Amino acid sequence: MxxxxxxxxxxxxxxxxxxxxxxxxxxxxxxxxxxxxxKGKILASLFxxxxxxxRLSFESAMYRLGGxxxxxxxxxxxxxxxxxxxxxxxxxxxxxxxxxVAMRHPKAHSVQEFSKQASIPVINAGDGPHQHPTQSLLxxxxxxxxxxxxxxxxxxxxxDLKFGRTVNSLVELLSLFPHSEFHFVSHPTLKIDHEKxxxxxxxxxxxxxxxxxxxxxxQLDVLYMTRVQEERFSNPEDYKLVKDAYTxxxxxxxxxKESLTILHPFPRVKEISADxxxxxxxxxxxxxxxxxxxxxxxxxxxxxxxxx
Length: 308
Ligand code: NCD
Known about the structure:
Elements: H1 15-30, E1 42-47, H2 53-64, E2 68-71, H3 87-94, E3 100-105, H4 110-115, E4 122-127, H5 133-147, E5 154-158, H6 165-174, E6 181-185, H7 194-202, E7 206-210, H8 213-216, E8 222-225, H9 236-242, E9 261-263, H10 284-302
Parallel strand pairs: 1-2, 1-3, 3-4, 5-6, 5-8, 6-7, 8-9
Helix pairs in contact: 1-5, 1-10, 2-10, 5-6, 5-10
């Protein structure tokens, strides 16, 4: 049993929830035979914002567990939200058609709004610049897979630390583990919220902030690169100013630890040059693949599916 009904925010997850999810994900990673755990169950896959990995890995996860999916066409353009239906009405209605929902929406807190009248579990697959808890679970899974620990790690976050929802959720989850050291690298206009830095320090974590990537790289165990979130900028000129602030190259990795892992939630634009893909630290393609096993585990545990 997990401690929550809906997975809306990183803070819904306890350390015990995370351990259970990572353990079951590892089981799915090692046992790829088709399953019937979710036979007769339906996932409603509601994506009102573009997605490749998150949507397809949720849908594939449900099929691999033996369940089915229902979905909206054209990124929600075909739904009654366009006729003015509220998200909370929609949550109540979809509860009658499915057993679990994975939902992405461009507005912060929208998935929570949807969940208010929903009688089935709702999973936040990204709400605007706010949260993306399942991405962080797969990030943690990948970190644990390569480092065999989640405590005592030096993690560098690079890029859009202001609008990046994956950063928000992952920082929060990592802060549950002792001796996490945070290295935030960004352009001054895309800095991590100072309140978050204060909270991390209050919890006893060490926090560094830089503009130069080169200052952080040699210290890190994990380097988490992110895309500048173009769609969150109200002024395209502001985006142009920062879009190419960081590009990771083979050269910028000289002097990194041998055990470094480089992660990226994808999609990447220019922040990791293609030559880095050959570097032994590059683990972002594995990371994307592991999302499938982690989402299988999340669905199976939330629905309390039993092995046949
Ligand atoms: C991320 C997202 O949607 O927040 N992508 C993902 O889910 N894998 C990161 C991004 O869009 O930059």
